[in-house]
Amino acid sequence: MQPFQEAIVKKLKEEYHTELGKATTKQLYNAVSKAALETCWDTWQKPVTGKTACYLSAEFLVGRLIHSNLLNLGLLGETENLLKDAGINPNVFEDVEDDALGNGGLGRLAACFLDSAATQGVPLMGYGIRYRYGLFKQHFAYGCQQEEADDWLSWGDPWSVRRDDEKVRINFGDQSVWAVPYDMPIIGYGGKMVNTLRLWQAEAIAPFDFNLFNEQKYNDSVQQKNDAEAISAVLYPNDDTDAGKRLRLKQQYFFSSASLQTIFAAYTAKNGTDYSKFADTYAVQLNDTHPTVSIPELLRLLMTQGHLEFEPAFQIVQKTFAYTNHTIMAEALEKWSLSLFQSVLPEVYPYVVLLQNRLSNELVKKNIAETSKYNLIQDGMIHMARMAIYATHSTNGVAKIHTEIIKNSALPEWYALYPERFNNKTNGVTQRRWLALCNRELAAFITDRIGNGWITDFAQLEKLKPYAEDAASRKQFLQIKRTKKDQLADYMYRKDNFGLNTGNIFDIQVKRLHEYKRQLLNAFSILDIYFGIKDGRIKEFNPTTFIFGAKAAPGYYRAKGIIKFINEVANLVNYDNDVNRKMQVIFVSNYNVSYAEKLIPAADLSEQISTAGTEASGTSNMKFMMNGALTLGTYDGANIEIVQNAGEENNYIFGARVEDLEKIKDSYDPKKLYAEQPRIKRVMDTLIDGTLTDGGTGWFQELYNSILEGASWHKPDNYYLLLDFLPYCDARLQANKDYADQDAFAKKCLLNIAAAGPFTSDRTIQQYAEEIWHV
Ligand SMILES: *Cc1c(COP(=O)(O)O)cnc(C)c1O
């Protein structure tokens, strides 16, 4: 036995009084994780020298940690062999719940960044919230989404270490709580560097009073405990209500203050009260505006505990912080009501006023009289994106087009003021999780041809390009794709009790459910194909399986209506014996990181069909690309850079561009398209003519109206579904036709993989490190 294998056996014995053949999955999971943690403990505990970058994020969607950590430590093979020898399925850990402490792309990006930084030797600390319940679990009842609490800690949390000695006090207007850190090791590939993800948990200050003879004291104690723990109880609590908003603001300050207090105290312990080197010691990246209250918080610390005047404190703040913008939709830019902010954070508010005063002076000096678009405090609201741009030295977008939109149409007044601050950092994903781990067959295929350097140097993928010309390679690629489809079919049968036809084209759209991502357009196009086949309009059609996966925010009824609609379309198609040898439709339940790792390697077509100008970057488009799926998408987000690099002729790009929409937006008339195009009318009418039923919820009528009539808060067909419908159907049918020549299709897939090099988060992290953090 290898030393690590012995360590696992020993852990099982010492901690669980059991042995390999008898241990439960939970015991095995905890024993293997703890044994693995011990192998990198000393590396982890070594103090960091030099400048540290800190990544503040309300979300870290890390997924399942055990496989990626074992891979990075080089212990995955040994572990699997040990399990196999003991007669245990090496896939047992696929039952372990994901750490789902994030909603989607923004949280997954944070997780990919941590993996990349540790692998690239960049000292990067993650700071966030240890939510007691992560993103809800989803299942369907009669095609409608039902939510359940995500009790991820029921599996234990062997990768976290609680640090009671480093807890921090957080003060709100109406309560004080402890922030207790739980540290997770972030293990770089090869194990040379181990960074830390520190997640804060809220706890009551006063020890619990068990004095059961004093009912008042006991009840007060219970109340205090519950109020404190509520702060880190759930990911993004519903903020429709005022109570929800209050809690959300508390969450933001909670992790921001805890992180900044820690950084500040560590600096002071080392350097005393000379803060002149603070910004050379720490760089702090704000992942969206959620941690922006860190800015006045650091001002507060520097001015109260550090005894600095405002101006020198401001200079330090500005040099320390940088901000990443993730959205251009005006309604999604975060604002807080002034009165709420003052009541929740009375000790922080004065520093917001100081920032506003400094800004006002600057605007006067620059002769800017119209200040309403700049003011941090305006019309009774505090504007967080403005604060984040004003008080930092860098604002970045996450794809080229997104950065241009920020500069030219979302926040042009700020770009005019500080053009030098704006820069682009196109997102990426880690190829360790999204290729090496989730598609070992393709990883071996690549390594056989170009060596394994791509695992840490993804630019080497370019060397794969000549193999697109090699018939044997194309054939082998197609075999791998089939293997991944078969594996997905097994998994989906277990999870969703659905039988996939693995000889079909797999056409997949997986991402959070949102109107701008246009899952409804996808469903309309599937209906169009369905009617086309039934009517004989479509004669040649390569059998296709259309797969969806998405969660809708619990209060987002229109998104829930779209889920119900797609499930109804699936029923219509799957039970129709005229067409179900040609097409299948399935909406998988509880889409999460682990499901993504099964779905993406099996895809032939990657659906990236957001309205041009709405998706900041997208990252699943990159995961699909490196697994050899072709993009069927719009000119939006990183799709543009993907097809620029892989060749538009090797992908399927369709639809209106940002410039086109800009031109027609005032004259656009979806009713006209509906009236003039029978194919559009037919699919739209399925919402209201009884073809499909919403179970009496009224959701389908509402969807219909949202497109033809609009609503109080938006114009008709706000996301241009009907405008892009026919071009989308055409592109989709073209892809379907092209698939008939599988060999030619495989060539395109290989060219896409060979062009995926720039879309690693290793590249993104290197750019942040060099151009923003200077670490
Ligand atoms: C990558 C990923 C996302 C982001 O998907 P987009 O298509 O870029 O929005 C969301 N959820 C999960 C589980 C992911 O892995």
Report what the structure shows:
This protein has about 775 residues and is an alpha/beta fold. The protein contains 31 helices and 23 strands. The strands form 5 sheets. Strands 1, 4, 7, 8, 9, 10, 11, 12, 16 and 17 form a 10-stranded mixed beta sheet that branches. A 6-stranded parallel beta sheet has the order 20-19-18-21-22-23, with helices on both faces. Helix 20 links the parallel strand 18 (about 505-510) and strand 19 (about 545-550). It has a domain at about 430-755: Glycogen Phosphorylase B (Rossmann fold), CATH 3.40.50. The chain binds pyridoxal-5'-phosphate. Its cofactor is pyridoxal 5'-phosphate.
Name some characteristics of this structure.
single chain, binds pyridoxal-5'-phosphate, 31 helices, Rossmann fold, alpha/beta, ten-stranded mixed sheet, 775 residues, six-stranded parallel sheet
> Which small-molecule species are bound to the chains here?
pyridoxal-5'-phosphate
The assigned structural class equals alpha/beta
Q: Please, how many helices?
A: 31
The oligomerization state is: single chain
Total strand segments:
23
Named CATH topology of the domain at 431-755: Rossmann fold
Please give the share of residues in helix: 40-55%
Per the principal axes of the C-alpha atoms, what is the gross shape? globular
Biggest sheet details: 10 strands, mixed
